[in-house]
Amino acid sequence: MPTKGLTERLADGESLVVAEGYLYEFERRGYLKAGAFVPEVVLEHPEQLRLLSEEFVHAGSDTVVAYTYYGHREKLRAIGREDDLEKLQRTALQIAREVADKTGTLMAGDICNTTVYDKDDPETHRDVTAMFKEQVEWAMEYNVDYIIGETFNDFGEALLALEAIKTYGKGVPAVITFAPSSAYSTFDGYLYGDACRKLEEAGAAVVGVNCNRGPKSMLPIVRDIIKSCKGPVACLPNPYRTTDEHPTMHSLKDADTGKMAFPDDLPAWLCSRTQIRAFANEAKEMGVRYIGLCCGNASYYTRIVAEVYGRTPPASKYSSDMSQHFVYGDEKFAKKYFSAGLKAKLATNE
Ligand SMILES: [Zn+2]
């Protein structure tokens, strides 16, 4: 078990690097269907979940997030697998527990937007709370260090998540984040800074944003949240090259066809590693202390974020070192025969 929990680490001024993005990574690898985006991989290929969880820790994640994202009752009902709900939840929690124990990392439970919430329909609020309750109670059986409530569009639903964690979570800390679709406010009209401050005042240990946006269109929102809040702020964007003109991953278009890139053609919009390094540096300078990447993340990006945040994860053993390249390397490694002529050929196509 790790010696220091989330709250102690943050109170001591430390940061947390957290790898998310299981959903897209499994879709990319052929174990999850885009569209419904239900984590059936947990039931059908649990060995793959274990491997990816270990890989994220190897790359520098301080937390193993139980992959229950979009594995809630409503999503399973939608694909006719509601009977598998508890098995999916428990399998994901068990794997996260085992990987966290083996690697000495923290373990987080995970609840998220239910897709059921309607701010004007109180009956949905009861349904949402019931869904959160069952998930939080299952998570507690696996001794989670904290619980994430993520990708909320509405402040109202985020607050229900926090309340459920407080009520059924036996005092474990809550990390609550919005998926910013608008640049300014939640779907139910709260400025992100205000919404995060209210959650902080209501007892969230960490507040902030994750998903929907790439670093460039996410960081201005984070800057406002930091100004509004007293405590630690979370920032976990998608690693996509969103811009002012195309601020969310859903607004990116394929360069050749003009069609919406989400979800199949998003890989064409992935950030370079240099861009991810610049993002991590900027976030660090701004004072973001709960840092990571969401959908689109891969372990090579997490390694960069971890290194910028001062870690040397096991994967750093294999971080790029071009001084050892036979064409571009330094005197010791480059072969004169190739570095003289081949460099120009590779650059010019002549
Ligand atoms: Zn995401």
Automatic annotation (TrEMBL):
Name of the featured protein = Betaine--homocysteine S-methyltransferase 1
* Cofactor(s) demanded: Zn(2+)
The note on cofactor binding and number reads: Binds 1 zinc ion per subunit.
Domain Hcy-binding span(s) in chain numbering: 4-309
Species of provenance: Mizuhopecten yessoensis
Q: What are the binding positions for Zn(2+) in this chain? A: 211, 294-295
Pathway field: Amino-acid biosynthesis; L-methionine biosynthesis via de novo pathway
Q: Does the keyword Transferase apply?
A: yes
Q: Which UniProt keywords apply?
A: Metal-binding, Methyltransferase, Transferase, Zinc
Q: Which GO terms describe its biological process?
A: methionine biosynthetic process; methylation
Quote the InterPro entries the UniProt record gives: BHMT-like (IPR017226), HCY_dom (IPR003726), HCY_dom_sf (IPR036589)
Cite a single GO MF annotation.
zinc ion binding
